[in-house]
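Continuing the batch. This is chain 6 of the set; chains 1 through 5 are on the previous pages. Same settings as before, nothing changed between runs. Recording input and output for traceability.
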Amino acid sequence: MTSQARSNRFLESVLAAFAAIWANKMRSILTALGILIGVANVVAMVSLISGVNKSVLDVFKQMGTNTFTVMKMPVGNVNYMQYLEYLRRPDFTSEDADAIQDVCSAVAAVTPQSIVARKVKRGSESTREIYIVGVTPEFQYIVDSDVGDGRFFAWPESDRRRQVAVLGHPVKEHLFPATDPIGKHVMVGNRKFRVVGVLEPAGEMFGQSLDDYVIVPFATLNKLFGERLTTRLSLKATSAESIDEAMEQVTRVLRRRRGLTADEDNNFEVVTQDQLVEMYQNLTRVTWIVMIGISAIALVVGGVGIMNIMMVSVTERTREIGIRKAVGARARDVAVQFLVEAAVLSALGGMLGLAAAFALAKVIAAATPIPAVIEPWSVALALGVSIGVGVFFGLYPARKAARLDPIVALRYE
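Output for chain 6:
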């Protein structure tokens, strides 16, 4: 048989499949419902998770590939006893930062960093409790933060513990919506601070601003807010290529300053952006597994439905099968006809599922801060799997139809 003849026969099988499906529209729609739900779930979840991943990874990229952090706690989950143990580790000091800056040639900038949560007020206007971040002027070089209005505080102001502040853009918009805040005062908790600068907007993630905080000098924060503050060190290597060297140098300095011997473990953690990305990907991997499990159940249910309806179709069309075999149709031709019908029915369910997934993803993206990114590979995978499910669950009915005795089939009423 020539390739042209095979193509014609396949086309005839597809048209016959559409005719059979059209003849039982409601039954076909209900049968394909499981496939529709499974495909819609896969594509919608992939689009939402991909959108979230893109947003999070963009934030990590903004932080730079040559930045890292030294902190008390390791990245990842810890139990309560481990948490208490890590909490007893010594804090980092401005002297640690100075020693690193003096000794570590691969470190371009370093700042100690402390955080408290306070309301920021101006007159009768007040923010909710937001982060008040204490750093040194080196901070602006580490995170590449741009000051839109005014300036960042200088080293003399930081060393002399001046009560000066740089506002995040949302804080400025809330407290000074139509006024230049530079030189004016705000209350951080119950302390008065003079505004010297406003940060450029850093964008949003999940509808939340990335710069909804206030930056003040590290020494000032520790002087005014008496509770014990957990401190970390934020650092920037001279280049992405020198980050490993920078981490080794910092580790040596801190071990020496803390008096650790060669057989003692570090009592601090060095965390890179890659580690944070890996931790985030490990967390989202669980979501992927759950999504695949739910989708697999829906697709299996849909496949069983297709097998059931194809068995009914074989029974209903027994006489038709007998006639086809009587006029020369081979068993393989009959099997292919029912396999194509099962695949077409499943593919229609897949395409309806894609349409539902696109609509659902767009609605969620429009109504919530969660972004949606439709991945082409998820569309191809969903359609391929749906057709594969149809073929797999259509095999048994197709074989049953192919094995019918034409004499018995012709006598069937």
